[in-house]
Amino acid sequence: MISVRQAKTTDTDLVAHFVHALLEELSDGTPPESAVILRNTEKVLKEPSVIAMIAYAHEKPVGVMVLNECAAIYAGGRFAEISELYVLPEMRSQGVAPQLLKAAVAEAANRDWKRIEVGAPPQPAWKRTMNFYLRNGFTEVGPRLRKVI
User: Fold this and answer.
1) Which domain holds residue 86?
2) What is the pLDDT of residue 123?
3) Between 24 and which of 31, 112, 123, 148 could a Cys-Cys bridge form, CB atoms 3.0 to 4.6 Å apart?
4) Is residue 119 assigned to a domain?
5) CB neighbour list of residue 54: distance below 8 Å, 6 or more residues apart
6) Element (H, E) at 17
C-alpha cells in the first residue's frame, strides 16, 4: 500500500537524501556534496511556496516529490512546477510515482493552481521518464533552458 504525506520540517534529512540520490542518478554519479544538498534542502523547504511530498510503502519512505508554486500569464495565474521527483529504484513501476502525482493534483486543486509543469530529462536517454509523464496526463510542450546566475 502506497501512502503520501506532506513533508514536515523534521523530514529535511530524508528529503535531502532522496534529492541527492536523484541528482546522483541524473549526473552519472557526480552530484553536489551531501552537505550542500542538505543546506539547500533546509533553505528551500522553509519557503512557503515550496511543498515536499513523501511517499511510503508499508510505512517505509520510498520516494519524494518537490512542488514549487509559480505564476504566469500564459498559465492563467498560479501553477505548480515539479522540481524533483524520485522513487527508489526497487520501487519503480510499483505505483509510487503515480500516487505522488495524485497528491500533487489534489494540492493543486486546494491551492487553485491552474496546471502542473515538469522539466523532463534529455531524450532519448530518459524516454521512460517522458513516457511516464505522458501516460499520466502531461503533454509535451518543448525543452526548457536555463541561465545560472
Assistant:
1) 2-135
2) 72
3) 31
4) yes
5) 4, 5, 6, 7, 11, 14, 15, 61, 63, 64
6) helix 12-26
Residue 142 reports pLDDT greater than 80: no
Phi, psi at 75, each rounded to 5°:
-90, -5
* HSE (side-chain half, CA atoms, 13 Å) at 85: 24
Amino acid at 141: V
Phi, psi of 42 (to 5 degrees): -55, -45
Q: Answer for the pair 77, 71: CB distance below 8 angstroms, yes or no.
A: yes
Query: Can you give the CATH number for the domain in which 32 is found?
Result: 3.40.630.30
Asked if 42 and 12 count as a contact pair (C-beta separation under 8 A), the reply is yes
Q: What is the pLDDT of residue 36?
A: 96
Strand partners, 81: 68, 117
Average pLDDT along the chain: 93
Do the domain assignments include residue 143? no
